[in-house]
Write a structure and sequence with these properties.
The complex is a heterodimer of chains A (about 230) and B (about 350). By secondary structure, chain A is mainly alpha-helical. Helix content of chain A is about 50%, strand content about 10%. In chain A, helix 5 runs antiparallel to helix 7 (about 155-170) and helix 5 (about 115-135) packs across helix 8 (about 195-220). Chain A starts with a helix and ends in an 11-residue tail after the last helix. Chain B is of the alpha/beta class. Chain B has helices at about 30-45, 55-60, 65-75, 100-105, 125-135, 160-175, 195-205, 220-230, 240-245, 250-265, 280-290, 305-320, 340-350; strands at about 1-5, 5-10, 10-15, 80-85, 110-115, 140-145, 175-180, 210-215, 235, 270. The longest helix of chain B is centred in the C-terminal third of the chain and has 16 residues, at about 305-320. Classes of the chains: A mainly alpha (about 230), B alpha/beta (about 350). The interface of A and B includes residues 48, 54, 203 and 213 of A.
Chain lengths: ~230, ~350
């Protein structure tokens, strides 16, 4: 595998924290150049110049960190193009500073930790909604669904991502841990599954709709061919 | 008024603009922001059917004739409500100020209402201005932007003590409709600009005021729904939900409608076109025609019939603004209650 292919693969693991989708499938990576010596330059674009700077910063910083971890990579430059706070964010990234470095005196949350955690919990709820719905659609009862362990979850993106998010959030995710958990980590009880799913589906819808609007605006702004994918992968 | 299959709909458009974003109005030194802002709005227009798109030059500044034709003549709108937006940092005379909107209201007093604004950080001077505006224009509503920057402050909360003073003043002045912008913002922030918990707080403390959450809290529609279902005086402003999704992402639009009908209910949803981002004509026609697409994923959402569409398109807003609806366009009175109060209780316990 070439270094460039490994860089792109690593970027595919970087998620938009708000949408919980890889920045590659969202088409946020404009270009990725790798020199024979291992210098990497990544250019990122967002759906609008006014996309929230905190999430924009997180994606750019995560992309930089993901590429930096790769063997064979020497220098990493990540730049955000055509954003109204692009200069502040790009300069802070180049200096190796956090969000507070981009906007000195305007925020105390250098790593945006609490914002990131809030959206990880939402993402976990939304991913679980899809797994749970699929089980109910197959005819399983609420008792059967809530009795499942992590080991019973199907192989696939949703399961993999759920377990990553649980690890990030400090929620048990070993094979014997409950398959479906509340945002705080407690297992979902059979008697409350219907109501839990009702609210989880709403969170799922919210993420899907935001992703849909972002995709549409990006297509319009950059004159891209329509992305037929209405539902997130 | 819109007539379709023999049904007649009284239309109140709860969110329209008459802006000037032409280069002549850009603040020197801030051109890139003024230009970027209106271009961003223009991209949103791209979510509408292609035949309704405008060139950027017209979009930057459209005429009074355009407004009258698009909203009243072609758009079926009986009554439209201006939500004033200042943005004076970027636009010399403001983007669309109360004063500018009032000039049009003077010409069409029986078709237009202009809402004012306040910012609690302006203190006593802001309070006097609000009183003057209320007296001069007979304000029935205000539009608030809690995420706006002001003299070193990075936004404000409806929960702040000073905000409560302004809300008390609103109550005293008969300004009963408090529209709160919970949606995309334009300044760097160290908190989530879409947080609706402050609306929750004041809705409980001011039961006589109505709180309309604009853009239904998109992109945080879940937080909005969990909150709105517990507060009888919180309403869903549908600007962007219809314009941004109904044509571009119809299946997502159906889910958003289904969720809103379940959690908030048809008595508390308000149509709005967000003109000139989108023309009302295709939105009114499409909404009256709208039904869930086939598919199991929509099967347990509440249905929406002609009476429900009449409420959302105009009757709900007419009630909030005291707009007189012709007898033959009304529905028999019925009490409105939040759709899913019990469920929301459970959700807020868990979240």
């Amino acid at each position: 595998m070439t270094t460039r292919a490994r860089v792109l693969e690593a970027l595919g693991e970087v998620h938009d924290p708000e949408l919980d989708e890889p920045i590659t499938s969202l088409r946020f990576v404009t270009s990725c150049e790798v020199t024979p010596g291992g210098d990497v330059d990544v250019l990122l674009r967002l759906p609008t110049p006014q996309c929230a700077p905190n999430f924009a910063y997180l994606m750019a910083a995560d992309a930089r960190d993901a590429v930096r971890r790769l063997p064979g990579v020497r220098r990493v430059g990540v730049r955000l193009e055509d954003h109204y706070t692009g200069r502040e964010i790009n300069d802070a990234l180049a200096r190796g500073e956090g969000f507070a470095g981009a906007f000195p005196g305007e925020t105390d949350d250098d790593r945006l930790g609490s914002l990131r955690e809030l959206f990880r919990r939402k993402a976990l709820v939304a991913r679980q909604a899809r797994l749970c719905e699929a089980m109910l659609a197959r005819g399983e009862t609420p008792e059967q669904v809530t009795a499942h362990r992590v080991a019973d979850l199907p192989d696939g993106r949703d399961t993999r991502r759920c377990l990553e998010l649980r690890a990030d959030l400090g929620i048990a995710h070993d094979r014997r841990a409950p398959a479906f958990v509340l945002p705080g980590g407690d297992p979902v009880a059979a008697g409350e599954l219907g109501r839990w799913l009702r609210s989880a589906r709403l969170v799922r819808t919210s993420l899907d709709v935001n992703g849909g609007i972002c995709r549409s605006l990006l297509e319009i702004r950059h004159d891209l061919a329509p992305d037929p994918e209405e539902v997130a992968p | 008024m819109y007539t379709h299959n023999g049904d007649r709909f009284f239309v109140v458009d709860g969110h329209v603009h008459f802006w000037d974003a032409s280069p002549e109005n850009w603040v020197p030194g801030q051109e890139q922001y003024a230009k970027g802002w209106i271009e961003c709005f223009h991209a949103y227009m791209g979510l509408a059917p292609e035949e309704t798109h405008w060139p950027i030059e017209k979009f930057q500044k459209y005429s009074e004739e355009d407004f009258v034709k698009d909203v009243f003549e072609d758009g079926y709108v009986d009554f439209a409500i201006f939500q004033s937006t200042y943005l004076r940092e970027w636009y010399r005379d403001g983007f669309n100020t109360l004063e500018a909107n009032e000039k049009l209201v003077e010409k069409y007093p029986d078709r237009l209402i202009a809402n004012g604004r306040f910012d609690p950080r302006e203190g006593d001077a802001g309070m006097r201005q609000l009183e003057e505006d209320a007296k001069r224009y007979g304000l029935k509503g205000v539009k608030l932007y809690t995420a706006e920057w002001y003299q070193g402050s990075r936004g404000w909360s409806l929960k702040d003590a000073e905000s409560q003073r302004f809300l008390e003043k609103c109550q005293e002045l008969g300004i009963t409709n408090i529209h709160v912008h919970k949606g995309p913002t334009i300044w760097p922030l160290d908190k989530d600009a879409f947080d609706v918990s402050d609306v929750d707080h004041v809705a409980t403390n001011f039961p006589e005021l109505n709180f309309v959450v604009e853009h239904v809290g998109l992109p945080r529609i879940e937080d909005f729904c969990f909150m709105a279902t517990q507060e009888p005086n919180v309403y869903a402003g549908l600007a962007v939900a219809i314009g941004g999704l109904m044509h571009a992402r119809p299946r997502f639009f159906a889910k958003v409608m289904g969720e809103l009908l379940f959690w908030v209910g048809e008595d508390k949803m308000l149509f709005a076109s967000d003109y000139a981002i989108w023309e009302p004509k295709w939105q009114v026609e499409g909404f009256v025609d709208w039904t869930y697409p086939p598919g199991d994923e929509f099967s347990d959402y509440p249905p929406l019939d002609v009476a429900g569409k009449k409420k959302i398109l105009g009757l709900n807003a007419a009630k909030l603004y005291g707009i007189d609806v012709p007898e033959e366009l009304r529905l028999p009175d019925e009490a409105g209650t939040p759709a899913a109060q019990e469920d929301a209780q459970l959700v807020s316990d868990q979240a």
